[in-house]
Structure formats: structure tokens, C-alpha cells
Amino acid sequence: MDYRVHNSIIELFQGDITKLQVDAIVNAANSRLAGGGGVDGAIHRAGGPAIMDACRKIGGCPTGEAVITTGGNLAAKYVIHTVGPVYSSGSAGVPKLLQNAYANSLNLAEKHGLKSMAFPSISTGVYGYPIEEASKIAIRTVVDHLNGQTILEKVIFVLFSSPDLEVYIKNIQAFL
After folding, report:
1. Dist CA 22 CA 34 (whole Å)
2. Considering 16, 40, 53, 144, which one is annotated as catalytic?
3. What pLDDT score does 88 carry?
4. Quick one: DSSP state of residue 157?
5. Are 96 and 134 in contact (CB under 8 A)?
6. Fewer CB within a 10 Å sphere, N or C end of the chain?
């Protein structure tokens, strides 16, 4: 499903982020950039050792920040690694850290002249962020960015499951 935002498109897609032909895919990384489970593990497996080599050279990434590496063997030229927050109910600053993870990824894509990128649903897996809340932060951050001055032509939200996709479909309407 495609949605127009200013001069750009937001696409909602259920599937495998590692297969997408975009300029960059976003990795929901850990702060050590050490690979892991979920989307992080899938990206490292599909992209091959060049991604881990690049991550080792960078060394780490604080929560809410983003770094960029080669895409290795992926169809995407780059991987933007961002660290979302571990969710804890009522914790001050957690929503802002999640917003920063998306915003800093978008800004890094702009800095590198990228026109297309794909996000997973950051922090909603093992980090426990409720998808209902997380999706609103993700969508709002991307829509706000695309409504400004941008070279990004397409941003894809890649959802792992049909229920997750339905949450994004329901929540995107409020921000368009």
C-alpha cells in the first residue's frame, strides 16, 4: 500500500527487508553493533561478513543514534544501523529515543544522498515496545520528515507479520 506525502511515497509492506532493492535498509541494531536475533541477525546473515567488518570498525552506536555501513551482499547498497530503546512502561525519555532512532536514520540517508530506504518496526521485537505506540512514533517521524525539505522519494515500512501490517495501515491515516 502506497501513501503520498508531499513529493514522496510511504509504502507499507509485509515481507523480508533483506530482499528489498532500495538505497538503504535500516537495521534495528544493538548498541555494540554485534549482530543478534530478529531483523539484525537476518541482515547480517544475508549481507555477509562485510557488514560485520564495517560494524567492528565503527565500534558501537548509542541508543537513538544511527551509523551507516556497506550493504555487503544485500540488494541495498547501504545498511543504516540504529539502536532503538528497550521498552519499559512509564520510563521517561523512551518515546523520544525511539523518535530519534527514526529521525537520525532519515538524516543519515539524506546526508548520503539516498533516495529510498526501508525501516523495520524498530524496538517492537525483543526490545518489547508495543507496536501500537511504536507505529505512531515511526509514522509521525517519517511523515514530518517527508513534509520538509527532502531528497527521499520513497520510505518503506517493512512489517514482519500481517497483524503488525494492520496496525500500521490503521495508524497511518491519522498522519496523512
Report:
1. 23
2. 40
3. 80
4. E
5. no
6. C
Encode burial over 141-161: b for 16+ CB neighbours within 10 A, e otherwise.
Answer: bbbebbeeebebebbbbbbbe
62 within 8 A of 41, measured Cβ to Cβ: no
Supply the DSSP symbol for 139.
H
C-alpha cell of residue 160: 514482519
Arithmetic mean of pLDDT over the chain: 95
Distance between CA 126 and CA 122 in Å, rounded?
10
Average pLDDT over residues 90-112: 93
Instruction: Give the separation between CA 128 and CA 105, rounded to whole angstroms.
Output: 20
Q: CB–CB of 45/60 below 8 Å?
A: no
Structural domain boundaries in the chain: 2-175
Active site residue 16: no
Which three three-digit cell numbers place residue 56?
A: 567492528
- Does the domain spanning 2-175 belong to CATH 3.40.220.10? yes
Q: For residue 90, what pLDDT is reported? A: 65
C-alpha cell at 176: 496523512
3 state DSSP class of 149:
coil
E strand or H helix that includes residue 41: helix 38-47
Distance CA 12, CA 149 (A): 22
CB 111, CB 78: distance < 8 Å: no
